[in-house]
Request: fold
Amino acid sequence: MRTDIVKTYKDIHSWVGIVAGLALFIAFYAGAITMFAEPLNRWASAPTGIAAPPPLDRTPELIDKVLRARPDARAAYTVHLDTGPNQPARLSWTTGNRRAPGPTFLAALAPDGALQVVRQDASPVSELVDVLHQKVGLPLDREVAMPIMGVISLLYAVAIISGVICLLPSLTKDLFALRFGKNVKRMWLDLHNLLGLFSLPFHIVMAITAVIFAFHDKIYDVQGAVQQAGAAAVARRAPPPPGPPRPPAYDAVRDTLSPAELERRITAQAPGFTLRSITYRYDTRQGAHGDIAGVDPRYGMRAPTYGMAEIDTRTGAITEADYMPGRQGRWFAAVTSFFTLHFGSFGGAPVRWSYFLLGLAGAFLFYSGNLLWIESRRRKERKAGMVTQTRATRILGSLTVGVPLGCVAGISLTIAAAKWLPADRGDLAAWHSRIYYLVFVVGVIWALVRGAARSGSELLWVAAIATAAIPLSTILSPMLAHGWSHTGASRLVDLVAILGAAGFAAMASAARRRAVAGPRDSVWAAPTIATA
Reply:
């Protein structure tokens, strides 16, 4: 391949990476954490203290008592067939609506048969991490942030293509090369190329699906507008059918099948589909209906951990299976494949761990890309006779430190805060968001003021301490009669945090050594030492 063509693509790869790399770091780091959203949500949520879920054959009794005592549950309530630490109640419902959801309530039967209802104060911290992933950390409304994320994803795709073209001439020679030594730039380049090449399929999937997710709301809006226009034309031509009077919600629910009977009929229609929950709904337009959620390990799923379908709760018939694994048409199966590949909702735990590690490796890929650009600038400026870095290079170096480490420290501290903030606060989501963005902004400002060399080791120590605060909160908060310590899968959060804190501490020591012993004209050299 001609040298000038490779050089052009190197410039494209470098500048696209500079523009999009820091935002992509946030997306990949937060996305890696979302692979274990359920254990994180369990770790961060206070215990409910509710009675054990009744057997499925006693669920009709529980439903009847809830609907008599709580009219706010009649419009929609969910029966959970798969109960356990993550879902301790047999029945739950959420007040409010989709745009303004209210609190969630859990119901059970006490040992004496009386109805027990408690409010579920689930922590919103895992949802915050997911939002940071979706909006690449931008504190903007979804309507504004998602198109920006789409543009960043397009730049990400350009960086992938140009990076592969840059690597092609030296592919056979440098494929497995990993040269550690005094040439730090060569070491970073080898790591960058190795991670980028061997995770290339993963990055292609992420780039394509992220672009689709960013703009699919707009696509569906246009599609919905066209369909509504057609439906309105039909409605104008045809008189409205006379509908029978709608029964009260309670009477409608009484005419529905029991959860056990619905499970039996749905299993007969969809063998291999494991039902996790049944949501009974009632409204004046559709009457009694519902939807189900479950898994089928043979197929990919639309949501990160489950597939969905709509049912008739009076007959048990599956009325719509567009999002149900194994029963989708070709078009919806193709659309679901994008969600499945992005969420890693196939293959069980091995795929989730693979996606977690690939997400962290992707975050490191963007971080190392900025480092390589800065080191390349140092060589060019040295050839031009400069002995100090330009202001632009110093600012980029500071942002390369401040943005990723501010993100890491902010996420860790807001997770740790879940066991210290009062669980009954109505504005928990706002508090977690404030904690994250406060730490993030302070980290960026600190890096800009202190410079990349000094702030690098300092913010790495902050990230290590913030991450270590997660398992420390598990240990200390119960001692103060305020927190809690769950068993089971939630302990995974503490284990990963301990490993992460140790890794950040090791990197902090290495960054300090680099600041002391590295080249004096490097942006990573501590200014006070360089002056001396």
Remarks:
- The beta strands are 76-80, 91-96, 101-109, 115-120, 274-283, 287-295, 307-311, 318-320.
- Confidence is low (pLDDT under 50) at residues 233-248.
